[in-house]
Amino acid sequence: MRVTRKMMVENMVRWMFQKAERIQEAGTVSGSGKKVNRPSDDSMGAGRILADRTTLSRTAQYQSNISRLGNWVEMDNTVLDSVYEILQEVESINMDQAEGDQSIREELTASLEYMYGQVVDLANTRYESGYLYSGDLSSTRPFHNSSLVSGGTAQDLLFDLGDAASSVAIEISDSGGNVVRTLNLTGLSAGAQTVSWDGLDDLGLAVADGEYEYVVTAEDASGDPVAAAHTYRGGAGDKEALIGDGAVLRINNDGGDIFGDVLMSVAGVIASLKADSYDRTAVSQALDHVQTALADLEMEMVDLSGAGTRLENASETRSQTLLLYENKLSDEENCDAGEVAVELQTRETAYEVTLETTALILQMSNLFDRI
Amino acid sequence: MVSLGSIMNTSVSGMATYQTAIAVSSENVANADADGYTRQSVLIISGPEVADVRRVYDTFCAKKVLESNEDQGRYETAAKYMAYVEAVFDESSGYGISASLNEFWNGWSELVNDPSDMAARADLVARAESLAGYINQAALSLDDIQKEVEGEISNTVEEINDLTAKIAALNRDIAYAEARGHNTNSLLDQVESLTGQLAELVDIQVQTNDSGQVNVQLSGGRSLVSGSTSREMGTSIDAATGLLNVTWQDGSGGEVDVTGQIKGGVLAGCLDVRDEYIAAYKQSLDDLAGTLINEVNALLLSGYDLNGSAGVELFLGAGADDISVNPLISDDPSLIAAGSAGPAVGDGTIAEGIAALSDALLCGGGSSTMGDNYAALVTRVGSDVRSISDFSEYYAGLADFYADCRESVSGVSLDEETARLVLYQQGYEACARVIEILQEIMDTAINM
């Protein structure tokens, strides 16, 4: 083949550019530490990397959700444990002692009323920006016997009756503890009650705006006390979190469901002890109710424990996934520094060889020099 | 007896011949590095006389050079623009549509933990804005590249017209020179150079007639240069797509749309990028944006916000160009309808549903999630860019090969010319010497 000098030089120039480009490519990989710097470097790899990053990101979020719910569960456990203890104390009162002595009964009653209050407080436990046990109405306090008066309008008074009551007295007090109004009702059946208040005091004057507490005292036809407990004001619903793909963990936080019966059962014991003449059967029945409430509460705690275990397992699995994908991504994305350094060196050498060859060709003498 | 006169004539003729030969060789030497120069060689026949100064030229080689120019032009241009397109989809930094889509879904997952949390809501709005932003950016960048390509199409058509006009003018000059018996080699070199440049821009057929004039047609047969007339190409805006069509003037006032017949050169490269690649990628982005907008909004509209009111849309717009976050929600994140029933601030049912969309097979006719669909798009872009880049390298190599072939036949070898120059010079000197001897003989004869 006929070869001219122009051909030789142009070829060498092409080779120089090509070798230089290959050095630049190796340099980019070395500098970034990444095998795939552009989708075209490895199109399948680029797609896989994105998919893996998605899995990693989502799993990290699940882990965070699990952790948050875990804190919630701890709080829930603590509260339920405390309520359980209180209920156990209630269950263990000595009926024989109570039978004999009026003053002992009075002491017991006071003590039980205090414990009732404790349960209400525990049921009203706050968490983050809301309440632990209000279901989906998380900013509503679950249990309170109070009515807000605003612009002259008073909220309805809500309470639950354990039995039908032939007469009910509701004492409404202001923030200073002064009774401003007493409402008397008759012939109420058992269950949830809604009583409206016109916002007037006993003298028929409108009370000032503010929050008013009320106390309910109920009696049946024979004059014996009827149990009156707080009404649950929260909503239905669960506390939930996404702990995995399509996996939602739900935990019951409906205060009415959890504490409604507990409160009523304690109120029932209080009512039975407050009767003028001691009725052992009534007290016994009330204590049976407490036992039932205890059993139900235990079930609730078992469920919670189950949820806690599920959370732990989910956390473990998510951790493993995180580790797996972190390693997978590292393999896919990162280059081996040693390998790259060697490759870069090889290409630099190739370039130098090309330079030398070009120099040689350029310096070749021609026929003219020799004539 | 041979007359002294005729010997003289032969020698003088010889000197003239060698002088011409030296001139041709010198011209070769002077033009050794000139691009597109075809070396000339003299044919000396007995006389002696120069029978021909011919261009040393291989027709097959020339044809292959044109073809490889077309392919190289096409894929080099495509590769150039595809590199920009690739940058739009490059998420090696960790930022981009895929990452922000992940963050968006995570934001809903987080909201389920406490739907009443205003901070989580505000954060979710920020993530939605970020996602919409990245999608907008990708669509706009593709639009920008498309505009560049359109610009190049316009410019290339103008260049084509410029070249065809020049070739037509050269054809006229060649006819004139031929008629007067002048050497047309330099004109022929110019024509070859121009057709080479033209082939880089658009795929053509070239025929050369005996006198060296060149006729050029588009691959479909439509004439660009015929003798000394040239036909122009142009552009027109397509009513349906709003993009440029490439047209050809048929000579009787009509403009014919030839866009579909262009298969080589810069024009084809531009059309490939614009119509095959960018159009498809834009469609994919629009589909993704559309699905996102519709699915998220549908769920929100069926739910209730923190205030108990019916939900409003999170995303406005219909596609990748105009997806944006509803300013009502940006201003007041409490309007995000996370719950499915009434004023229940702790209800995150809708938020759960939206978080679950990340796994839903809503794309690819029910075969992939939105995230997977985008990852598949990135893979596709990467593999398209790779394949064009590979073609570009291959055809560049092929073009170099045929350029070498041409150079091998038509290029000047200084060593070869040097040898010839020495030969002709010695021939010239030999003839001169003969004339000297003749003079001496004639002197002797005269002085007898």
On the 0 to 100 scale, the average pLDDT of chain A is 92
- pLDDT under 50 segments of chain A (min length 5)? none
Query: Termini separation of chain B (Å)?
Result: 19 Å
The CATH superfamily label of the largest domain in chain A reads f41 fragment of flagellin, N-terminal domain
Please indicate the percent range of residues of chain A in DSSP E strands (runs of 2 or more).
15-25%
Q: What coarse outline of chain A follows from CA principal-axis ratios?
A: rod-shaped
- Number of helical stretches of at least 4 residues of chain B: 10
Structural class of chain B: alpha+beta
Spans of at least 5 consecutive residues with low confidence of chain B:
none
Helix content of chain B: 55-70%
Q: Pairing-aware structural class of the strands and helices of chain A? A: alpha+beta
User: Total helix count of chain A?
Assistant: 7
- Say what the CATH topology of the largest domain in chain A is: f41 fragment of flagellin, N-terminal domain
Q: Mind telling me which CATH architecture of the largest domain in chain A this is?
A: Up-down Bundle
Output the radius of gyration of chain B: 36 Å
Largest sheet of chain A: 6 strands, antiparallel
Average of per-residue pLDDT values of chain B: 93
Quantity of strands of chain B, as a count: 11
Q: What's the total count of β strands of chain A? A: 13
The first-level CATH class of the largest domain in chain A is given as: Mainly Alpha
Overall 3D shape of chain B: rod-shaped
Characterise the protein shown here.
The complex is a heterodimer of chains A (371) and B (448). With 371 residues, chain A is of the alpha+beta class. Chain A has two domains: 5-56 and 333-366; 76-323, Up-down Bundle (f41 fragment of flagellin, N-terminal domain), CATH 1.20.1330. Helix content of chain A is 56%, strand content 18%. Chain A contains seven helices and 13 strands. The two termini of chain A are 25 Å apart. Chain B folds into two domains: 4-56 and 411-446, no CATH class; 66-398, no CATH class. Chain B has ten helices and eleven strands. Chain B has a four-stranded antiparallel β-sheet with strand order 3-4-5-6. Chain B is rod-shaped. Chain B starts with a helix and ends with a helix. The model of chain B has no long low-confidence stretch (mean pLDDT 93). Classes of the chains: A alpha+beta (371), B alpha+beta (448). At the A-B interface, helix 1, helix 2 and strand 12 of A face helix 3, helix 8, helix 9 and helix 10 of B.
